[in-house]
Amino acid sequence: MKIRLAKYLADHGLCSRRAASRLIDEGRVLVNQRPANHIDHVDADDQIQVDQQPFHATTTKHYVLYHKPVGIDCNLNPDKTDSLYHLLQHFPMRLFPVGRLDKDSCGLVLLTNDGELAQRLLHPDFYHEKTYQVTVDKPLMSEVLTRLATGVSWTVGPHSYQSRPCRVTPLSDCSFEIVLTQGLNRQIRYMCRSQGFKVVQLKRVQLAQFSLADLAEGCFQALSLCGNSSGF
């Protein structure tokens, strides 16, 4: 049975569905020797190329936890020496990160080839929790933590954003833990900036049920998931 191209690429290990859509938009995908479009429906009988390379579908799912250090860029750009792309070349299977953790942040990144799981973890409608430990540049007042928990707004260029209500727990005078159910670009940094604070350290410790635990910085840990990942 033929399915939409972006879903096919995600289900068969290329990347998340959102990332597959971007590849199609950028003209980097061919179907049967012609530029792909979003209404294409494909199956194993179709010839698919991504970045001029044949796409080989896989059905075996892999899951790896990575403790990303500061300085590694999650954008998979082979032209950048600090890109996560180069680390992933050491694995025998194709993997991609679920979402992005910005270059100046550290902590948990889930690597997988399970596009369906990535779609569910990234889509805001599923309200999957992401937990971070945050250190800012000056002491925090309880009113600031309350405002962060209630929801704040900010603008970036012509665009305005609003954070959902979230859980915020103080850890020290200048640090707190925050649990989000959305993943806007550099969200925590912008939330703090809206209250007059600068983030000096940001660490993700949990993504849904996946935990950083005691995984050392720069290290990887393979996981085995039982059952159907689409249940997440």
List the helices and strands and how they pair.
Layout: E1 3-4, H1 5-11, H2 17-25, E2 29-31, E3 34-35, E4 41-42, E5 48-50, E6 53-54, E7 63-68, H3 84-88, E8 96-97, E9 106-112, H4 115-122, E10 130-136, H5 142-150, E11 153-156, E12 159-162, E13 167-172, E14 175-180, H6 187-194, E15 199-207, E16 210-211, E17 220-223
Parallel strand pairs: 9-15
Antiparallel strand pairs: 1-4, 2-3, 2-5, 5-6, 7-9, 7-17, 8-9, 10-14, 10-15, 11-12, 13-14, 15-16
Helix pairs in contact: 1-2
Report what the structure shows:
This protein is an alpha+beta fold and 232 residues long. The chain has 3 domains: 52 residues, Structural Genomics Hypothetical 15.5 Kd Protein In mrcA-pckA Intergenic Region, Chain A (Roll); 84 residues, 2-Layer Sandwich (Alpha-Beta Plaits); 79 residues, 2-Layer Sandwich (Alpha-Beta Plaits). Helix content is 20%, strand content 31%. The protein contains 6 helices and 17 strands. Strands 7, 8, 9, 10, 13, 14, 15, 16 and 17 form a 9-stranded mixed β-sheet that branches. A 4-stranded antiparallel β-sheet has the order 3-2-5-6, with no helix packed on it. Strands 1-4 form a two-stranded antiparallel ribbon. A hairpin with an 8-residue loop joins strand 8 and strand 9. The two termini are 25 Å apart.
Measure the end-to-end span: 25 Å
pLDDT below 50 for ≥5 consecutive residues: which ranges? 227-231
Q: What percent strand?
A: 25-35%
Please report the total strand number as a whole number: 17
CATH class label of the largest domain: Alpha Beta
Alpha plus pi helix count: 6
| Mean pLDDT metric | 92
Give me the strand/helix succession: EHHEEEEEEHEEHEHEEEEHEEE
Shape: elongated
Rg over C-alpha atoms, rounded to the nearest angstrom? 19 Å
Helix-strand category: alpha+beta
The domain tally reads: 3
For the record, what is the CATH homologous superfamily label of the largest domain?
Answer: Pseudouridine synthase I, catalytic domain, N-terminal subdomain
Q: And the CATH topology of the largest domain?
A: Alpha-Beta Plaits
Helical content stands at: 10-25%
The CATH architecture of the largest domain is 2-Layer Sandwich
Largest sheet: 9 strands, mixed
